[in-house]
Fold these 2 entries.
Entry 1:
Amino acid sequence: MRKQRHQTYTCCPLEAALDVMGSKWKATILFRLLDGTRRFNELRRLMPNVTQRMLTIQLRELEADGMIRRKVFPEVPPKVEYSLSELGRTLEPLLRELYQWGQTHIQRRLPGAATEPPSGSNERDARAPSN
Amino acid sequence: MRKQRHQTYTCCPLEAALDVMGSKWKATILFRLLDGTRRFNELRRLMPNVTQRMLTIQLRELEADGMIRRKVFPEVPPKVEYSLSELGRTLEPLLRELYQWGQTHIQRRLPGAATEPPSGSNERDARAPSN
DNA sequence: TCATATAGTATCAAATTATATACTGTGAGG
DNA sequence: CCTCACAGTATATAATTTGATACTATATGA
């Protein structure tokens, strides 16, 4: 089942990291799980743009990589809870910084997205931190 | 030419960030440029696994996103220098943390992998590569 | 009986990303 | 003349990722 995602990053840990959370939905999933345990359809409702199939796949990969835990309750109707693993937790600061960077530096609010610019609404050269 | 990469991340800045540096080669390119200006073929030699075409494409996208600067010298043979832009610079801490995270948490050193571990190389147990 | 909710699979199609290979034009070196 | 290096293009193909749609089983509720 596993594609050989983990073959490519012979060169650098950077890719190892991105390999684990850099795909289209994984970062978002992990981000959502920062808030706590979620059931499958809860996640689905939180991320309306991801298809069921994609969500399943991404969750399985995250699980296989030890980033999240999947707990199945032998009930009917089925109940499955997803939560961050210890390892997944270690990504928290990184995820938040990534989020922050996106907010600070790529302030392009699309029609529906209402994220008010912090202060000096200068789209391009918002160089606040660490420079 | 531009695909609509920037359409998807209506939902969150996280994806905006990853959109700009989360692809297979971009992070590595940016990482390489942290050291300073590089010429095209220099980058190519630094990243033997990326094809010329891919390198070109990724560099152009990074340029279009304002992450790097491309300086063409009207000489022959041609000379083109790539360097981080101001915006690209702002990713530096993030890139280093990402790198660090990969090192700390995904310590699977494959046979050929030698990317000068900076200093405190944390010799944890590497989970056996299960592929 | 029928629909609903759960957490998925199964298929197929489309889009995206990556690779291989050959080619460009110029100047230098042999 | 032939070849190399430079910084790419062009073309075709392969691999991977994503999406759309339909389907599964079971309990509950109307």
Entry 2:
Amino acid sequence: MADTKIRNMEEFAAVSGISRPTVSKYFNDPESVRDSTRTRIEAALEKHAYRPNIYAMNQNRKLTKNLGIVVPLLSDPYFAEIARNLEQRCIAAGYRPTLFSSHGQPEMEVHVLDTLRSLKPAGVLLAPLGRSSEKDALSAFCDDVPTLIFDSSVDELGLAFVGSDNMQFTAHITDYLCRTGEPPCFFEMKTPANPNAHRRRQSYLSAMEEFGYTPDVISIDGEGWEFEEIGRLGGHQALKDGRFSTNTILCSNDRLAIGLLTACYEQGVSVGRAEGATIRVAGQDGHPHSRYTCPPLTTISHDYEAVSQTAADALFAAIDGQVSPWKSTRLEGKLILRDSA
Amino acid sequence: MADTKIRNMEEFAAVSGISRPTVSKYFNDPESVRDSTRTRIEAALEKHAYRPNIYAMNQNRKLTKNLGIVVPLLSDPYFAEIARNLEQRCIAAGYRPTLFSSHGQPEMEVHVLDTLRSLKPAGVLLAPLGRSSEKDALSAFCDDVPTLIFDSSVDELGLAFVGSDNMQFTAHITDYLCRTGEPPCFFEMKTPANPNAHRRRQSYLSAMEEFGYTPDVISIDGEGWEFEEIGRLGGHQALKDGRFSTNTILCSNDRLAIGLLTACYEQGVSVGRAEGATIRVAGQDGHPHSRYTCPPLTTISHDYEAVSQTAADALFAAIDGQVSPWKSTRLEGKLILRDSA
DNA sequence: AATAAATCTTTACGCGCGTAAATTTTTTGT
DNA sequence: ACAAAAAATTTACGCGCGTAAAGATTTATT
């Protein structure tokens, strides 16, 4: 119980019987003081529940304990999930993460970076919008703030890049589809939001060529981040026009696949690998929702844990002063077999 | 271009030709200075891109321009969507919102409130976890920080409550289902996470009684926030046990319905209002994903815009000093007719 | 027990800005 | 053009803490 209200570190130092500079040292890093001192401070902390004023704390410190986590679209459960994962790791490592979403808008991304700058963060975990990002703003930001890029790489910006191995993703699932039925055609957006989509198309083309099949890419129209709706509309159009050359469709990502499944439903096209189904549909990403589509979506999933751990650890290492040359880490995905393909 | 780096407000005041206190006044509220002064400051701002140090700013100010937005689970697109909506409104109103998720964990909710406290926010928009919330911590927080509760009410905490009219939701969609086919049974979690679920059950019972039908509530097991999986497993069980007394199922919320649809698919039960379908399924919430289920889900949707606007405006008014007694505002939902029911 | 090393205390300054009071300048109204 | 009102300037202090330096105290080493 706080019998007397502690107004500042001076007063707290008094009640804990430790000098203020030492208390300050403790809050900077509890390990930096002697055990006996730490015990006394923490005993006082129990009694009085004092917390240092973070504004006064961060004003003079060259580097704060703040971290930024930026994703392109928080309403996409994939990003929400990876953001949650990163957030937990940051907290566990003793940082104060703040979550931001660019909401799919380049100007918002710039605004977020601007806000982040003023927070003087020790580092930032940034998943850029991709194609529509204002490269100059990103680049300038990375020059000023230790930034680790994840999910979608932009040039060789920042400390390093950590993401998934999109080439492996597509090669792997294409291989699976070829071995279990007709070779797939590839369903994608004509102007995808991020570079991962290009890698996936490229990998599809390579894989098909390697297997001796003729690739068939269906590129649908649509701008923005409403992938389900783009997939649904594009799916309707493609079905109507008979553009699917095989009974197997590999989608560039799960959200597109979810939209395509809806289009299939709406046109009465049955989907699945079971007898009697007309077409097979597979996605890519291991989207949290993919388990609950009808039929449940066969997909190749990001290794969420590994991506977030690798990304977070790389940033922490850089913050701790471990300099290492820019590098790109791409982690393999795991095939998740469900009923759709 | 910034020819000379501006280090603080003093230097910026110098290059803009305005005194520092006036510049300070400008950053507090641009409207509070003369037009000619504002123009000169903004001209200098163009040239030098100076931003006040937010830590120094907030250190002395009794009230910051910070706002907190807290949702129980950010990976639920419903909350992600409403959070995005609120965030935009806060920015438009000149505040600096920060987004937090309790990730479905009561201890995380407490941690978030603790973090929020140290940010000395002007106000907080809080959607509590509900049943599992630590009431005392919430209550203590509301005593210290102007807090507006939304989505799910807890006692009469905070400045006010803004949410949806769950009674109207369920009455309305129950009415629709009764008029268009067999009266619905009600599919829900036995121990729901928040009080809205209780209102919905109550409203279902009242509506059925009013229409002269016998209500049938199927309460399924499951703890936590993975509603789709709970709905899927509960759906399997209920289908196996033949617990659905009519061919129409009203789910307590859309995520449960999504899981139930998956269970139906997995058991080969056809869903829809079309000829030949076995059962009808309806949800409640207007979840962003409900458009893309197979079949697309008939639901009653929150008025996202109205809820977020009412909540944000109420908080802004309170921050501006407009005192008003605690009140609860519950907004009506709109029926969205799709193929599932 | 004596010395060296680590840690703590005391003292002091500064960070960047909010803010108040007294004064001067500019704008407004007639 | 003149007085009154509004706004800007000058001056000055304080917020809560980081941090540096010098001296005092505790702990570790032999």
